[in-house]
Amino acid sequence: MTAEEQTRSVSDNAAHYGVNEWGDDYFSVNQNGLVCANAKVSGQSLQVPLMDMVAGLEERGHAMPVLLRIENILDSRISAINESFARAIAQCEYQGQYRGVFPIKVNQQCHVIEEITKFGEQYHHGLEAGSKAELIIAMSHLRDPDACIVCNGYKDAEFIQLGLLARKLGMNCFFVVETPSEIGIILEQSRLLGIEPRIGVRVKLAAKVEGHWFEDSGERSLFGLSNIQLVSVIDQLRDANMLHCLELMHFHIGSQIPNIRNIRNGVQEACRYYIDLKREGAPLGFIDLGGGLAVDYTGASTNETHSKNYSLDEYTVDIVETLSEHFNAADVPHPTIITESGRATVAYSSVLLFNILEVSRFKALSLPSAPADDSSEIVVNIWQALQSLSIDTLQECCNDALHYREEAQSMFRQGLLSVRELSTVENIYYELLQRTRALLPQMKRIPPELQNLEESIADIYYGNFSLFQSLPDSWAIDQIFPVMPIHRLDETPTNPAVIADITCDSDGKIDLFANAEGESKNLMLHEMRNGDEYYLGVFLVGAYQETLGDLHNLFGDTHVVSVRITENGHFEFVEEIQGDSIGDVLSYVEYNPKELFESLRIKAEKAVKRGTISVTQRRDMLNVFKNSLDGYTYFERDH
User: Do 292 and 271 share a domain, yes or no?
Assistant: First the structure.
């Protein structure tokens, strides 16, 4: 391959997988066909191949699969959101300020929260807590007195006590009232502890949104106060002489909002509530827009579910401009803006890396040069269909081949055809389909029966991971994540494929992908090379996936490694967390690994007494049991 051909192949592959679109400048393909993580360090734009990181992981004993976190990207996302709001505030001459908060539920892992609070301190970036456990995390990690803690969700007396103690410690902790009953608890605990609360109210807007989470919006949304309830809460606060504690108004119209018009409409309606609450005498100074800032998982830049039709700067300008216009018209002081962007903060920073273990092909493995003289008539017939295949006879030959294959299967069930003859029929059938696939691009009109041919003959690549543990949204809600090889992109991939995980479950597969043409039921992958590992990456998985994963087939958490790209273009390993051992996951489902080992030891000792194994064999068996309990739950190659 010439240098020009290699450059063209790299460019074509980058376009095919859409990395320059969904990668948002955080990922790219270099001239050697390697996917790189990109970062700016001390003003320098740096590229580090993910394959270099894989080599470093394996040198340190971390077998695939690995969840790779790249700290520079997480830091960059925090900067991007805060600085975009700062630019919008300056551009629109907005008189308030911006305070971002990260919803802990989106990624509760300690290292992620530590990095957000440490790096985000320069922007006074805070946290959102939806439970007592998350509030304790927020209280212990936030050190900046100007950062906000926003408490959402249902709150009991203990939750309120914790938040009031946070206030006593000098933290900006807000209780967002989701239901009318919470007001009584807040007022009671405030009286008992002698600490005044900072209160917010969550209003239900009529505005609706598009996308997966449209049910979060409108009057039927699960959380928030209706108009009737909102007025009741105001009256309760006024009667208790505590209306001065109502400092924040909150709304949330949905997560992963793909259409910018929905966001603007929601903000417009929220402004009316804010203005009227001020007129009711509430001293409001904060408006919390909730989440909703989307991630473009497909790179399509549309208002489809997995995409978004706006940039970050358009998002922030639309919000600030709308707030400014409405508050100026009503002569209302500009409040501090809070958003709870979780997905857009952490999604880009994590990549699931795994190797391919095996490939199941829907291709002929052995094709005779001609049917043997004693071949069954069915073998001869399907062979003739293969020989007759052309553009003009394509549909007829495919119909014939399908008929003969089904007839061969029926004959086999009746004992009229041998397994070897059936294998010959299958080989000829798949060869015909592969030749048909090659001819389809030459056709002016593809027959409807053949339009899904590529899906039906796509190879199955078996990946060393658990979909249910690492990518639960892919299974549960058909979430599209960008998937692509992280190397060999200077070669053209030739095999349409779906990806299966190593769980024994028919749902354990990825068969919906994004590419330059839109959504596809298969992904183009390279031929496997004997003795060489083939690595894939699933990108933009930093939001929710670690939190939602389950122990399907008792596959546990993968290894998790955090890296930081350094000034010299290299990288350092910041944190390494070993994945679950088999003993770990057994203990999660209430087995005691020591008791299991003891049971096996007793069985082995009895076998020694019976004379079925030797003492040496007993020792070797117990070593295998012990090593298994201590071992990784995923496939490990022998080295």
Answer: yes
E strands within 210-282?
Answer: 246-250
Q: Are residues 108 and 219 in the same domain?
A: yes
- Across-strand partners of 352? 67, 538
pLDDT at residue number 66? 97
pLDDT in tens, 231-259: 999 999 999 999 999 999 999 988 899 99
Outline where DSSP puts E strands in 231-315. 246-250, 286-288
361 lies in some domain: no
* Bridge partners of residue 41, in order along the sequence: 44
- Whether residue 65 is preceded by a cis peptide bond, meaning omega within 30 degrees of 0, is yes
Instruction: Confirm whether 363 is domain-assigned.
Output: no
- Mean pLDDT throughout 490-516? 90
Query: H or E element: which one contains 101?
Result: strand 98-103
**Residue at which a domain ends, from 284, 319, 341:** 341
Q: How confident is the model at residue 476 (pLDDT cuts 50, 70, 90)?
A: confident
Residue with tokens 């294998």: 423
Cβ(468)–Cβ(552) under 8 Å?
Answer: yes
Q: What is the pLDDT of residues 543-555, one digit of tens each?
A: 999 888 877 788 8
Distances (CA, A) of 431 to 368, 407, 438, 457: 11, 18, 11, 11
And the tokens for 96? Answer: 């308030």
Cβ(556)–Cβ(469) below 8 Å: yes
Q: pLDDT at residue 304 above 60?
A: yes
- Reduced to 3 states, what is the DSSP secondary structure of residue 283? coil
